[in-house]
Design brief:
The complex is a heterodimer of chains A (386) and B (152). Helices cover 64% and strands 3% of the residues of chain A. Chain A is mainly alpha-helical. A three-stranded antiparallel beta sheet of chain A has the order 1-2-3, with no helix packed on it. In chain A, a hairpin with a 2-residue loop joins strand 1 and strand 2. The chains are: A mainly alpha (386), B alpha+beta (152).
């Protein structure tokens, strides 16, 4: 082993690089760093699982309108462990969004995105957009009815943007309607362009986190604590202390993922039929707020809301939350705005989930109309919840 | 020889030309990729309505029933009424879902966001704001022919 190291060191002079790595690994984290700071690592694990299961699925998946549905069915029912692989990929996509949102909330409440770490946050918002892009493009690939019509609605919405909307949509889906050409485009974006962007951005995000260190709780107009000050203040070296916490969270996340994939396998509906739209088409849960919003406001408003939200996130540390305070209690207006917005988005999502279903609530049957408003209905025998 | 890069008006011209060359190369590649990705124009389609399993015929439509098929005019919904066949564009003007005929209430409905139209294509209930377009339907031995409705 030593000889191998020497061989490389002689040619590449690795010793100084090794020293930097060692120093970085042993750099003490601030004392307040706790289990909440392990969500980024869990996210990294989930992205790794998606990459691995995605590559495995690519081996058998056929991105054409005629073959896609059958190839997914074959993966699920004929390929050994194919069902588990697809389920893990499917559940991984959900967990990634949950973990990314939790991670973002943690950074927001700790004020970790403030000067000098704005760039890390902006790249993080970009990563969130990439993750949502994965969800958007991956949704179509099984080519079943829900996938097809969910994509029709989602791609039709941008067409309402004045002037550039229709052309953008046509370019995006490769024609006048969602068809074979759309599948080809979405597939390439899903398996090549987005992973490329993801890897570059994750690399930069991680580099900045390690290079700048984890944010302190000090005001931004006070000097950042040095590693020695962190150590004196009760902070512990990243390795092995925080590394062990990261590893534990990673294993728990992996356990949750495999359990969900085994207990609730991903399913597939009926093949896509462009001539018949089934009732109750809904997008993935994380697009439900945008889907529901489109029912209340003109398309041009609804369509621009998600990108506007991402823009607001980018602007948070640059123009919105600019006070030097990090403690959430000392930035009440921004924190209140964040919570109110989150509750509104959650409420829209719940309305979207309930809309066009009939449910029993405390012994009374309610039908929730397209706008999510409940109406008492009589349930006859044989009818149940939607 | 001096180590400093050459300067002077000639050098500035050469630099500008080199820069232009690089920009031209990048634009050429990007433009070619864009042209490659631009959707090819679709086929003209048929005047006769085609379903999943081939040409649709008037016999396929029961009393107060309907069919949806493709044609040169896009997706078309044809409904049988007592006084004959009625044809409308079948793509909801809200967000592109395929509408369906509901014989029970005599309305055309979109399953996605609940838009409803009458058989004249007029919006009865949002969120759609634009009407569906009426098309002319004729029954011929080869199938159901759909053409744009003549104005007036």
């Amino acid at each position: 082993m030593q000889r191998l190291w020497d061989w490389f060191d002689e040619r590449l002079h690795l010793a100084p690089l090794w020293d930097v790595l060692q120093e970085n690994l042993r750099k003490p984290s601030p004392r307040h760093v706790n289990w909440l700071f392990t969500m980024g690592s869990a996210l990294l694990l989930l992205l790794g699982v998606q990459l691995l299961t995605g590559v495995l699925l690519m081996v058998y998946y056929k991105p054409s309108g005629r073959e896609a549905f059958a190839s997914v069915e074959a993966i699920m029912y004929e390929v050994p462990l194919g069902g588990l692989t697809r389920s893990a990929h499917n559940w991984g996509s959900h967990l990634i969004v949950i973990m990314a949102l939790l991670h973002m909330f943690r950074v927001f409440f700790y004020g970790g995105y403030k000067k000098p770490r704005e760039l890390t946050w902006i790249i993080g918002v970009g990563l969130l957009a990439v993750i949502l892009g994965f969800g958007f493009t991956g949704y179509l690939l099984p080519w079943d009815q829900v996938a097809y019509w969910g994509t029709v609605v989602a791609t039709e919405a941008p067409a309402s943007i004045p002037v550039v909307g229709p052309i953008t949509r046509e370019f995006m889906i490769g024609g006048n309607e969602v068809a074979d050409a759309t599948l080809g485009r979405f597939y390439v974006v899903h398996v090549f362009l987005l992973p490329l962007a993801l890897m570059g951005m994750v690399g930069l995000h991680l580099f900045l986190i390690r290079y700048q260190g984890i944010s302190s709780l000090r005001r931004t107009d006070e000097p950042e604590p040095t590693p020695a000050q962190n150590l004196a203040d009760g902070g512990k070296p990243f390795f092995p202390h925080h590394f062990l916490k990261d590893s534990a969270t990673i294993y728990v996340t992996l356990g949750v993922l495999v359990t969900l994939a085994l207990l609730y396998p991903a399913h597939i509906g009926t093949p896509a039929d462009p001539l018949s739209t089934p009732a109750g088409i809904k997008p993935e849960w994380y697009f439900l707020p945008a889907y529901q919003l489109l029912k209340y406001v003109p398309e041009v408003v609804g369509v621009n809301m998600p990108p506007l939200l991402l823009l607001i996130l980018v602007l948070m540390p640059l123009a919105i939350d600019t006070s030097p305070e990090r403690h959430p209690g000392r930035r009440p207006r921004v924190v209140t705005g964040w919570i109110v917005t989150s509750v509104l988005i959650l409420g829209l999502g719940i309305l979207g989930h309930l809309s066009e279903t009939t449910r029993m609530v405390l012994g009374t049957a309610y039908h929730f109309d397209v706008k999510g408003m409940p109406h008492v209905v009589e349930i006859t025998d044989g009818e149940g919840q939607d | 020889m001096s180590d400093s890069p050459p300067s002077g008006p000639t050098r500035r011209w050469v630099n500008a030309l080199l820069g232009l060359g690089v920009v031209g190369t990048i634009t050429g590649f990007a433009g070619s990729a864009f042209a490659y990705l631009w959707p090819a124009p679709g086929g003209a389609g048929s005047e006769f309505l085609v379903g999943k399993d081939g040409l649709l015929r008037a016999e396929d439509i029961g009393p107060d029933g309907s069919v949806v098929g493709r044609s040169r005019l896009g997706k078309i919904l044809v409904v049988r009424r007592r006084d004959g066949l009625v044809g409308l564009t079948a793509t909801c003007t809200h967000l592109g879902c395929t509408v369906a005929w509901n014989g029970a209430n005599g309305q055309v409905e979109c399953p996605c966001h609940g838009a409803r139209y009458n058989l004249h294509g007029e919006v009865l209930n949002g969120p759609a704001r634009e009407p569906l377009t009426i098309v002319s339907v004729t029954v011929e031995p080869d199938g159901i022919r759909v053409r744009p409705q003549l104005q007036g």
